[in-house]
Amino acid sequence: MTKMIRKHPGLSLTIIGAAMAIVLATAVVSSRATSVTETREIVLVAKGMAFHSEQQPEETNPHVKLNKGETVKLTILNEEPGQIFHCFTVPGLRLKTTRHLMEGESETILFTPKKKGVFTYTCMLHPMMTGKISVD
Ligand SMILES: [Cu+2]
Hints:
The protein is α/β, with parallel strands linked by helices. The protein has a single domain (about 40-135), classed as Immunoglobulin-like (Sandwich). The chain contains one helix and nine strands. The protein has one helix at about 10-35; strands at about 40-45, 50-55, 65, 70-80, 90, 95, 105-110, 115-125, 125-135. The chain has a four-stranded mixed beta sheet with strand order 2-1-4-7, with no helix packed on it. About 20% of the residues are buried. Mean pLDDT is about 85; it is low at about 20-35. Copper (II) ion binds near residues 46, 86 and 126.
């Protein structure tokens, strides 16, 4: 006579239940993460040996205005034709691109200004590409 090997009928259901609980918990966490406060998005385009922004098209090296404590997503985009590198640095806010950007390249810096003041930004390779960032 052969003995039937009895499986634990409840065990697999318990495992499925636990897996579903993990999935549900993950869904709750990710939906919370997306409901954070708004982010200010700024794109500075380096072109013609100056910075330009879509928000202030009439201004070269525009005066960028931020609020203390807000999340800022700043993208630096090099649209300079002719193999000219550009970068971006704000020493007063300890911000800078990690590298020099070639034509067509961009870098996004995510930061939160923690102090009020007026700070100077510049391209280290072209000192005339200089403007101000105000934090109120
Ligand atoms: Cu430059």
